[in-house]
Design a protein that fits this description.
The protein is an alpha+beta fold. The chain has two helices and seven strands, in the order E-E-E-E-E-E-E-H-H.
Amino acid sequence: MLTEIKKIKQVTGEPVKRWFHSEQMDLFVWYDNNQFISFQLCYDKENDEKAISWHKDKGLQHQKVDDGENHPGHYKATPILLQNESIDLNIIVDEFKKHSLNLIDEIKGFVLNKIEEAIEE
């Protein structure tokens, strides 16, 4: 179940960030003046982590997380997002619904709405 991490660093002058965490998923939501600006839903964390990102100016993107671990002979690198193949977003909707029962309706509805809009396109 996604639970909010309360103590996260907020950067002055940047949008407010909220972080919700579970063993299987992480959800980050950014907003400014009570308007959602973007979100990032990281999932499949135990296997091959991926992320769905939405930004008001860029729309929805699906990415693979390169955790920086698989570089033999080098120190761990900073994780980065790489473009990923398409995915059945319906599966992500179902998983998110299972893990978001504790989220306030405004945040849950926002994330679901943006993913479902992408499914309809």
